[in-house]
Amino acid sequence: MNHLWSLLSALLLLLSYCQSLSSEENEVLKPVQFNKSLLIENAIGNISETESQTPTNSPTWNTTLTPVKNTSTTLYCPGNQIFLENSTDCGCPFHLVKNGDDCYCPQGFTLTGEMECEDVDECNEEALGPCGPHAICSNTPGSYSCSCLHGYLMGATGCQDIDECGLAKVTGLQACPSNAECKNTIGSFHCFCPLGYVMALNGHVVLM
């Protein structure tokens, strides 16, 4: 009889506990696991409150958001600038000139894919070169030089023919021997004897 009374008491306690759970409509239900051995012990022996345990394999949620530093962010430099050595600052290598967002080589040099400046051979850029047809072009680092051929003089538009005959009249210098006539040619001049004169072996012009 005592055992029956203990069993009925345990069932009434369990029913009362379930009703209290269903009466709270706004309560968030949590998983509960009853200790079977404890229920059996209470049913047989003394009546006490039933303990509950959360299953060990129940999932848990961390509601605290922890900021994570984004280490995968890729930095870019504007234009064709690069990151300077041992720095996160953008710029141009020492041998380049910065103009806006881009790096350029000094005049007379061209930029290569390795951010290096390579000398431009201006003498081979054009068929006749930058000096024109009557000059010799010599390439120099970052520039070039022009030297006129014999019989030409450097002018505003390049090497121009020297009129040796006309120059002789202006300066008083002799281009040809006395009594000889001077005729200018491209890059040179020509001396010839007038009618009735011949050129002697010593270079003088004498009468026939």
Structure summarized in a few sentences:
This protein is of the alpha+beta class. Helices cover 19% and strands 27% of the residues.
| Strand order in the largest sheet | 1-2
User: Structural class given helices, strands, pairing?
Assistant: alpha+beta
Largest sheet: 2 strands, antiparallel
Architecture of the domain at 162-207 in CATH?
A: Ribbon
Q: Specify the number of helices.
A: 3
CATH topology of the domain at 162-207: Laminin
Give the amount of beta strand, in percent: 25-35%
Mean pLDDT: 72
Quaternary state of this entry equals: single chain
Q: What this model shows, in words?
A:
Among the domains are: 2-22 and 30-53, no CATH class; 82-120, no CATH class; 162-207, Laminin (Ribbon). Strand 15 (197-199) and strand 16 form a beta hairpin. The chain has 208 residues and is an alpha+beta fold. Residues 23-71 have low confidence and may be disordered. It has a two-stranded antiparallel ribbon. It is 19% helix and 27% strand. InterPro entries: ECM_structural_protein, EGF, EGF-like_Ca-bd_dom, EGF-type_Asp/Asn_hydroxyl_site, EGF_Ca-bd_CS, Growth_fac_rcpt_cys_sf, NOTCH1_EGF-like.
